[in-house]
Batch of 2 targets.
Target 1
Amino acid sequence: MGGIFLAASSILVASYAHGPSAGMAEEWEAPAEATRIGNPVAANQRSITAGKAIYQGQCVACHGNMGKGNGPAAVALERRPSDLSMPMMREHSDGALFWKITNGRRPMPSFEKLLTDHERWQVVNYIRTLTVPPEGAVLRKESKETTATRHMH
Ligand code: HEC
């Protein structure tokens, strides 16, 4: 009886471990409740400047100056730091980024004790400025400008 129970529960554990992200071991998702938390710190010049200073001090070694994941320490890591300039970063809510910065995931450290909540929101505001707009948006903007120029002639 006990044996059957054990066998059944280990199957359960195994299927949980694979879970909904089977085959996507690389994914790192913040829990839904965390993604819904709004950023209490306005993304103004002041908080972005403060966030930049924090980034330069705590994050640049791995994520690099432009957030591309190519900081000087990146080569020594077992996992490449995320490219924070990628357009897909826009799909992550501020709450999701905050949660990742708070908790970390090896080799990225947890910043829960290293930075205050306020500082972590400030750095979220700063890393938003590193993200380049998706290519489509740039193209649309360019074609609009082209049309505008054409109209002027
Ligand atoms: C020791 C190197 C290191 C440091 C320092 C570091 N990171 Fe990371 N960071 C990583 C790595 C590696 C990953 C990818 C982790 C993974 O996918 O498992 C990552 C992932 C992230 C992500 C998740 C991006 C995504 O695609 O979901 C964010 C956001 C992030 N880092 C922000 C920061 C910020 C902000 C700081 C500074 C406060 C920082 N990191 C400091 C190495 C580092």
Target 2
Amino acid sequence: METIGFLGMGIMGKAMAINLLRHGFKVTVWNRTLSRCDEVVKHGASLGETPAAVVKKCKYTIGMLADPSAALSVVFDKNGVLEQICDGKGYIDMSTVDADTSSKINEAIICRGGTFLEAPVSGSKKPAEDGQLVILAAGEKDLYDQVLPAFDVLGKKSFFLGEVGNGAKMKLVVNMIMGSMMNVFSEGLVLADKSGLEQQTLLDVLDLAAVANPMFKMKGPSMIKNDYSPAFPLKHQQKDMRLALALGDENAVSMPLAAAANEAFKKARSMGLGDLDFSAVHETVKHTKTT
Ligand SMILES: NC(=O)c1ccc[n+]([C@@H]2O[C@H](COP(=O)([O-])OP(=O)(O)OC[C@H]3O[C@@H](n4cnc5c(N)ncnc54)[C@H](OP(=O)(O)O)[C@@H]3O)[C@@H](O)[C@H]2O)c1
């Protein structure tokens, strides 16, 4: 496969780009804060000065950016993707955004003759490092088929979900469920502790019960040690809850549990925990006052 461009060297983008390099892909990277490219360059990546410079050099360019405003800025701003996208080039946005954002990017890219795929991912830092993401792609099927070799390296499974917007929606539904689960898990850990039970024993019991799942297994031990080193930053989880609630508004779906979970993530952000792992929402439950 040709050289792949990669825009956004955050937690996920860096792990994914290094994984592509390890599997023999040539990768050209760019990040708003250029110094965050250093590690990937040490692994053999080339550096692009701007998103436009990366797209100029590469037939396929992937974006992995914080949120809708970052995803739009990298495409539409000066020196952005749009300046160089053209017939024969594809842009793949793997950021978690809403369907409207994806559609705006799709339309602009098609107007310039390029092709577009949205492809948000399920899975966090470790699955990104290990090529174990779940890829939720939608948009131009030909482009999907062309970049499958890269998706096969990045993920354990790719879904093609049809028209642009379906990937974004699927990702938001998944993260809405995950964020709500994280809140009730935190409440359970605190309830066990306050009522005189060992939290580790609760984790052992949960792991054997019908509600066992990889997230409780992975996050539980660090949460009971108050270790919230960021794999999935809490500010991004709150963004996903907000976007999922907006999707609920559009479709008149009542989601009181997700709304409550969103409040808890907002509270955590107001406590200065936005850059920690999303499991730090646990702190909002621990710090509920008792009389
Ligand atoms: N971490 C996870 O577990 C996980 C899992 C699945 C999906 N996601 C999604 O994947 C995306 C990236 O997540 P992450 O964890 O890698 O986040 P991150 O570590 O916070 O990285 C965010 C990236 O976006 C860039 N960025 C932010 N604002 C920008 C702007 N206005 N213009 C250009 N670039 C901008 C940052 O550049 P700077 O370095 O210059 O700030 C950085 O490269 C998010 O949409 C997130 O929801 C994350």
